[in-house]
Design brief:
Low-confidence stretches: none
Largest sheet: 7 strands, antiparallel
Helix content: under 10%
Radius of gyration: 42 Å
Strand content: over 45%
Distance between the termini: 78 Å
Length: about 700
């Protein structure tokens, strides 16, 4: 193949296999063109002079003075790229694994330790960026972006000036004039020349003049001391060691020393195990640990934790780790059950056994099913039989049961055919019955087929044989009410009687402060422990004595009566509460107030609602506003607040006129009323959202 001009004059004699370039183009550049002989390429001038020998494996003209060529390596079949000019002179050495032209600059790469690294050069072989970056590409106009091996991105001008060092997460073109920058979920703005217009601190940037800031938070203690400040969407306390700051799907987790433990995309779930952080992602879970207690493996398909151990699943097997990150088991585990109080239930080769806290086999793998140990016993299934074993793997009790329920008090309830047993941790029968057992605060109710009821305590002692129609729960931690036919009795919890069975009363409702509320002839009153009538049975209903008063209902309304049957509070109330800390919340005609146990009205009956706090103060509501009274009924705050919420330590988050603050029980501000919102992060720590101007 040769070359003629338009007039037919031969410029290049026809002695080459092909003229043009290895990419298929055939236009000359700067009076030279490529030629192919065999598999190799060279340069020939349009005056029919060979500029180079045929030694290149590829030859591509980009424009005048820039020709990209490749040579095969001396000790491999890999191609190495460089550039030559139209005189055949090497401009960029042939040391590159790749060479691409992007907006007149050259992006070169070389391979080191099986990793490709990129650099940026101009056509004169001037280094703008050394070959040490993970990625380089044209960004906009005269700007290029470059990403380091840690994944952080920077911006460089085509003249080689660094506009931003590699500290961004990403970039995107907003329009022809501006570029958005992203860092830890926050947005910033560059102009087309790479100048920073807005730093990456904002939730959303619309343009140069319109942007949305993040919410501003302060973490304060109860002395109004600022512990930390952040800009974020939300903040979460994790365990007792970590705090997570969320920004646009990004999460920054810091420890108690305010050191960043994790920074990255928000996982599906984040939780703590001791001093370790666990991040759950769609297909894996990662552990972040302090260096002195790091795990031998930091990423798993799945993770479970309990009070003492972390269980990691990967490669179709579970491993067990203590809180120092040490793996306890040597052999692979197929399945595991957390929350055992001592030995760890694990499965190998299809069978279950138990490991001790050092990872050694404590009970051999032979069971079809197991449960965690509760106390010193556990339920297992062996060869189809349900058994009870101790922590030595010994069967306690009989060789097989139909069902087993292990209890928290180191006993078990078992059933064999129609017989039910209560066993101790040695398997000895504390109690046996052919009746049904039902839970009771003292132990178990024993119920016969004809619905007669008895009572057995947790240790299997029969307190009452099953001959009763009703047995109450424990009252005042010492009394039990029993019914048999038309008789009723009151017993101590040891089974002895305070009031033997009698038919004098239709019912005994409750017991408090030496008085028993009774029903007789369809009406209610009170007797003392000697069965002497203290308050005549003339009421429609009664409550229990607290202090010196008891609620009574007469003619459809409630009042309060003293032990001497003095009506200290007249029966003109629609409902009343029992006295607690000497105070009762009462209702009349849809309004609420508070009486003390001296019969004094301490809070007027004029509120829409009254709520008692855990520290015995009272939050009142009136016309959609809230106020606060102390435990004795003294007004602390009038009903002028939009919100009053109690915290764990007895303080109050209050809201008024669109602002929130924190008050103590005396109505004094411990955090001023100036925040958009206050939330309790943990006891004594409060998240305060600043109101932005």
């Amino acid at each position: 193949m040769g070359l003629k001009n338009k007039s037919g004059k031969i410029l290049i004699t026809p002695r080459y296999d092909k003229l043009g370039w290895s990419d298929g183009s055939d236009l000359s550049t700067d009076d030279v063109i490529g030629y192919q002989q065999g598999q190799l390429w060279g340069l020939v001038s349009l005056s029919n002079k060979r500029v180079t020998a045929a030694k290149y494996y590829s030859l591509r003209a980009v424009h005048r003075g820039l020709i990209i060529a490749s040579l095969k390596g001396r000790f491999s079949n890999l191609l190495f790229y460089g550039t030559i000019n139209s005189k055949g002179q090497t401009i960029i050495d042939f040391q590159n694994q790749s060479l691409e032209v992007d907006h007149d600059l050259l992006i070169l790469s070389e391979k080191r330790n099986n990793q490709r690294y990129y650099g940026l050069y101009n056509q004169s072989n001037q280094e703008l960026l050394p070959k040490q970056y993970h990625h380089i590409q044209h960004l906009h106009r005269d700007l290029f972006s470059y990403t380091d091996t840690l994944g952080y991105t920077g911006v460089i001008h085509r003249n080689g000036s660094i506009k931003l060092p590699p500290e961004l997460d990403s970039l995107s073109l907003l329009n022809e004039e501006y570029i958005k920058t992203y860092r830890t979920g926050k947005e910033g703005l560059l102009d087309a020349q790479g100048q920073v217009i807005l730093p990456p601190l904002y939730k959303t940037i619309i343009d140069k003049y319109n942007y949305v800031p993040f919410a501003q938070y302060e973490i304060k203690d109860t002395t109004d001391q600022v512990l930390n400040t952040w800009s974020a969407d939300s903040i979460q306390w994790i365990g007792d060691r970590f705090i997570a700051i969320y920004t646009n799907g990004w999460m920054d987790v810091k420890n108690s020393q305010n050191e960043t433990i994790y920074e990255g995309r928000q996982p599906l779930r984040v939780r703590a195990f001791k001093e370790h952080l666990i991040l759950q992602r769609p297909n894996r879970s990662d552990i972040i640990s302090p260096s002195e207690h790091s795990f031998s493996q930091m990423s798993f398909d799945s993770i479970k934790v309990d009070t003492h151990y972390l269980f990691g699943y990967s490669d179709h097997a579970w491993n067990i780790y203590n809180n120092f990150g040490r793996q306890l088991n040597e052999k692979s585990i197929e399945d595991i059950l957390p929350e055992s109080n001592n030995l760890i239930p694990v499965q190998r080769n299809g069978y279950w056994g138990y490991l001790d806290h050092r990872g050694n086999t404590a009970i051999t793998y032979k069971y079809d099913e197991v449960t965690p140990f509760v106390g010193q016993i556990a339920r297992v299934k062996y060869l189809g039989y349900q058994q009870l074993i101790n922590q030595f793997g010994e069967v306690v009790g009989e060789a097989s049961y139909d069902s087993i329920w292990v209890k928290n008090n180191n006993t078990a309830v078992t059933r064999s055919r129609s017989r039910t047993d209560i066993l101790n941790n040695n398997g000895a029968a504390l109690f046996q019955t052919y009746n049904t057992l039902a839970p009771h605060t003292m132990g178990y109710l024993e119920v016969t087929e004809n619905n007669k009821i008895g009572l057995v305590n947790h240790r299997g002692k029969t307190l009452f044989h099953p001959e009763y129609d009703y047995i109450s729960d424990l009252i005042q931690d010492k009394f039990i009410i029993l019914k048999r036919g038309n008789e009723i009795a009151v017993s101590y919890k040891d089974g002895s009687y305070l009031i033997p069975f009698t038919s004098r009363f239709e019912d005994i409702l409750d017991i408090s402060e030496g008085m028993l509320s009774i029903q007789k002839n369809g009406k209610y009153g009170f007797i003392n422990f000697d069965q002497e009538l203290h308050i005549a049975h003339r009421y429609d209903s009664v409550g229990v004595f607290s202090g010196q008063l008891a609620p009574v209902k007469l003619n459809g309304h409630w009042g309060f009566v003293s032990p001497k049957e003095e009506l200290l509070i007249q029966p003109n109330l629609d409902s009343v509460s029992h006295f607690s800390n000497h105070m009762s919340i009462v209702k009349r005609e849809d309004h609420y107030g508070i009486y003390n146990d001296q019969g004094e009205l301490k809070v007027a009956i004029e509120y829409d609602a009254i709520r008692r706090t855990s520290h015995q103060l009272f939050v009142v509501k009136q016309a959609q506003k809230y106020g606060l009274f102390d435990a004795g009924g003294q007004k602390i705050l009038g009903p002028s607040y939009d919100r009053i919420a109690e915290t764990h330590n007895g303080l109050f988050i209050v809201r008024r006129r669109g602002k929130e603050g924190l008050m103590n029980e005396r109505g004094m501000y411990v955090i001023p009323l100036k925040y958009k919102q206050i939330a309790e992060l943990s006891p004594g720590r409060f998240l305060c959202q600043v109101i932005l101007e």
